[in-house]
Amino acid sequence: MADNTQSNNGFLYFIVGALLVAVIGFGVWYFAGQPSAASNDADLSISVNEDGMSVDTPDE
Fold it and tell me: Domains in the chain: how many in total?
């Protein structure tokens, strides 16, 4: 009877490991597809100097 419980633990470890791999894989896939915030294609430019502040937006 004790041997049966031990063999079921192996299947449980397999399921937990498979779920862990799936979650990590989804995280890599999701975050790799996101654009970086440090891109040079900024939609808004704000500059502050001694004369004041200016906001530049792209012309559409």
Answer: 1
pLDDT in tens, 40-51: 566 788 889 888
58: left (phi over 0), alpha (psi -120 to 50) or beta: beta
Question: 4 lies in a domain?
Answer: no
Structural tokens at position 7: 């063999």
Record the pTM: 0.45
Nearest-CA neighbor of 33 among 44, 25, 21?
25
Domain extent, residue 23, equals 9-56
